[in-house]
Specification:
The structure holds two protein chains of two kinds. Chain A is an alpha/beta fold. Chain A contains twelve helices and 13 strands. Chain A has two domains: 189 residues, no CATH class; 149 residues, Nutrient germinant receptor protein C, domain 3 (GMP Synthetase, Chain A, domain 3), CATH 3.30.300. In chain A, a hairpin with a 2-residue loop joins β7 and β8. Chain A starts with a helix and ends in a 5-residue tail after the last strand. The mean pLDDT of chain A is 81. Chain B is globular and about 70 Å long. Chain B has one domain: Amino acid/polyamine transporter I (Up-down Bundle), CATH 1.20.1740. In chain B, α1 packs across α15 and α9 crosses α17. The two termini of chain B are 30 Å apart. Classes of the chains: A alpha/beta, B mainly alpha. Chains A and B meet through α8 of A and α5 and α12 of B.
Amino acid sequence: MVKKLICFMLLSSTILLTSCIKTQSIEKIGIINAHGVDKGDENLLESTLIVFQFSAQSEEITKVVSGKGKTIDGALEDANHSSLYELAPGKIKLMLFGRELAEQGILPLLDSQARDARIPDLMYLSVSETTAKEVLHVDEQQISTDIGQFLQGLIENHSTDHNIPRKTLQDFLRIYYDVGQDNALPIVELHDNVPKLNGVAVFRGDRMVGKLTNPEIVLLNLMQRTVKERLVEMSVSLEPFRDHLEKREDRERKDELEIAFIIKKGKSKTKLIDAENLVFQTETKMEMRLLEQSAGVVFKDPKVIKILEKEVEKNMEARFNKLLTKLQSLESDPFGYGRYYKRSEQGKDMTNEEWREKYPSIEVKFKVEAEIFRHGVID
Amino acid sequence: MDINLTVKRGDQFQPFYLFFIIFGIQIGIGVLGVPRYIFEDAHQDAWLSIILAYLYMLIVAWVMFSILNCYENADILGIQVDLFGKWIGKLLGTGYLLFLLAELLSVLLTYIEVIQLFIFPTMPSSIMALLLLILIVYSILGGLRIVVGVVFLFTLLSLWLFLLVYDPITRIETAHFLPIFEASFTDLLKGARTTIYSLLGLEILFFIYPFVDKRGTKIRLPAFLGITASTFTVLLATIISIGYFSPNDLGLIDWPVLSLFKSVSFSFMERFDYLVIMEWMMVVIPTAVLLMWAFTYGAKRLYSFPKKSTLYVTSIGLVITCSLFTKNVQIQNFANLVSKVGFWVIFVYPFILLPIVLLKTKRKTLKDLPNSNE
């Protein structure tokens, strides 16, 4: 009898105790999918949220909600007032910062996100060229899906192709706290009312300081990982190829040869060669396929290929140098040269401030080794 | 009180289970947070500290076995009475039991705090303590064999969690480990001590030893392997945490190992960390069950308290105490205190005990010699 009673009590407690937890049925919560943050008036933050709501009454699943507050959680709370249901942040996939806010620094915002155990570490971060509000308020007719998923998909697809760096909250924080490397986040901009990934925002600490264009991103990617199947355009001087041109009638001869390559595989190796004078060496190896050329150069002779390889190497090296100068003037180190210095005996106790002082004076010897494998089906 | 115990054949278990007992009691809630603390002491050489701690733990376990082997079939409570007399022995035994209770409380409090932090912020601690204790009481009512069974099964069932760390492993930044051998020897020792703080639990050997079936030859090996397994777990967690988090960041993260699981995501399960926290109950329960068993069993040995009443009274007491701790800081301070006391009780005390035991047995054999000549 006693046993039965105990059994009954235990069983009933399993039912009764469930009410100790707050009920959250899926029809009654709004699941935040994307979160845009802008600088609003009077030093307030303005949040724009893309929210999923699975209620039987409405046809539309997604809804845009916005709110203002001094802190990011305050803005969320404010947004909650204008939403019929409670907003749940557990599935935020994308966080988009307005450019103005990104230039002021985003760490205070990220800190609150990292502190909150409910917020996923795997959400992507990105910067809007204008304001996050504008991008998230895009007409959904144009993109035939909701904007949150659209942007997430955009970032996901492009980063699997290694076109743009994909940065999650955790990646950003790791690089931010690591000494000797800076972050780069993808930029979203509206193009004919359709969001488009356009370039990369480079950061100094948590502040956006500049923008890299799409051709420059290839260089950044070549530095950081193995790049595969990526198109590069460049123009080289036509002079060395004068003797190998196809005989075409009435063609206006230009001085520049426009060529397009696919980088079949490219990667770089960096090492510190002189710790005293901060000299680094970066060797980049690229296997490429020629896709297009503007002038009708005939590639029958292996010598011509050799000349072309030389020209490409020169061109790439110049581009690397230009990019480095640009980044040095921005005082941002997305390449992460500081990491290589930090590994050395002199640099092991280096702090981020010290690296900021040293970085503008570093010298990098870029060495590019290009190898052209195929040039299409025509010689 | 008898110094040696006679245990019925039916109450004994195979030495092989010692592996799971040691692993189960050592790996508890502490593992979730320990990489941060070891890292604070020994920085990128934390792994060296863990290896030092491992060697030290092996020595401690060896010392424990040496003490126990001097007796026929005794436990720590009996040994203390034998060495120091009835009064002091019992006093020391009571102290030992109170320490076990404090350890149990600290485990429960910390686990409840994690649940509140990550999943149910509004759920009262007393309710969660009650739920956990119902499970604990239920398994202890079944006797030692059930306790060992629970430890065995739950440990096996939670092993799959290891598979999930593949994702953070792919994101490791190797530069975080460079340069190696930077930490000074004192830093390494500090790190080793911190490692040991999170791997309390070896004291269970002192209680459970009489129940091991000693007809087989290898009793020590499973225990040593258990220590190896739990050290390996801590080592893995620490290495991944150091690689995954930036050095300046790791010092700020409360539960680095849980945060590792935050980056695991599958299409059918978006947030794996929630599942991991719930699954972690299977890691916490073995620790709690073993401690509770040792406590009730010890109370019966010392004062002949009936096991069931001790069990019920302590459980109710624990539920009430759990609801008294409300602040994060209180819980952390309490857990730190328990770890510090535990270090002395578990990892230093046996070294004091061993010479006394050896002396005593030597004297005894000398005394016994003339008798045997007669």
